[in-house]
Every structure is written in C-alpha cells, then in structure tokens.
Amino acid sequence: MRGGGQLRKYRTIKSTNPKFLDLLERIAWGLNNYAYLVDKELDFVGDLERIGVIYCEGLKLRFSDELFRRFILNIRSSRKTQEIYPRYTAEYLVVRRLAYKENLREVLISYTSWGPFDIVILKPPIGIQVKQTTKDVLALSKSELERIISAATEKGLTPILAIFYLHREKILYFRIEEHKITYSIEEGYESLEGCLRKRDQ
Length: 201
Known about the structure:
This protein is of the alpha+beta class. It is 42% helix and 21% strand. It contains seven helices and nine strands; from the N terminus they run αααββααββββαβββα. It is elongated.
C-alpha cells in the first residue's frame, strides 16, 4: 500500500474513534501483551481486529501491516509539540533505540504497574528508569533511589538508569546501585548490553 493509502487508513481509523490511534501508537512502540491493557482497551482491540488493523497471536498483539505500524510511528512522532505528551518523549526514544538498535522485542512502556520503572524488559528481566538532563551529571534523590531498589528487589528486576542528554543528543545506560546517587556521563554505556556485560564481568 502506498503512502496515500496508509494516510486514508489512518484518517478512517481517526474518524471512527480517535482513541484507537492512542492504543495503536502504544502497540507500535512495544506494548504488545493483553496483560497490560485495561478493559476499555481490550474492547478497542476487538474493534481494531475486526477491521483488520491488528491481530492476536496468543496473548501478543501484532500489526497486520508492518508498513502501517511504521506509518503510525512516523506520523504520531511528527505531531506538533503541543500534541505530544512531553513526559513520554525520552521514554519513547529509549524504547525505540532498544527495539531497533539493540533488537530487544519484549520491551514495554510501563505506566504504573511496575512502580518507578518507565520501561520494562521481560527477558532478561530489567527495569529502566528514564531521565533527561542538560548537564553531564545527574543525581537521584535518596528517596527515589530507595524506591527503585525496593521495587527491583520485589519484582526481580535488574535496575537500570537510562539518561537522555538533551545537550549532547545522546542516550547512555547505567546500572543503578544501592547507595549510589550520582551518575556521571563518563561512567555511562552506549548500549544496554554493554552496560550489563561490563557490570557482570
């Protein structure tokens, strides 16, 4: 289907129910498991499946057309600034990098169910706290660090800090450690795999 066809499909879905697009955007970014949907979203899944936009593979949600999934990502990412939820921008950039550069497929945007973690990777079990800054050094508060460590222990996750440096247009990863509050840019790793491997050596 050419770009015009993708746009027509997008406009049809939007005119049917604009909330469909919010759900499709979340699925396109990696939310692909029934377990993370609320009841109303499950109803939307049924509607979207009936019109052939997505399909269910066990508990997984898939786009019927990979090109349309990419179209959703592109057009929603190109919205005017006031139409984007600013607090999710850094999280989406990290998710996109994990999915497309590091080939991690079980990556979920974590809204509330995983405590302080913004992103959760199911295999291996990792919880990621995302921050953005315009400085080379970022400090967590003592209470925030305690919440992260507590949640990681409770849920069996390796706690990771992903920092998006706005002034350098760079994302780096750090292993969150108990009692370590300050994280400096020269200590970070450009890949999650490198961060995990270095710490486990």
